[in-house]
Amino acid sequence: MSSSGEPLVLVDHPSPRVARVRLNRPERRNALTGPLAVELAETIEAVNDDDAISVVAIGGAGGAFCSGLDLKAFNEDPQPDWVADFGDLWRRVHRALFDSDRIVVGALERAAVNGGAALALACDFLVAGDESFLQVGEIQQGMAAPMNTAWLRLRHSEALAARVALLGDRIGGPELVRLGLANASVPDAEVWPAALELAERLAAHDPTGAARIKTSLRRTVVDDTAEEWFRRALDADPLAGRRMRPIAARDT
Question: What is the pTM of this model?
Answer without folding.
Answer: 0.94
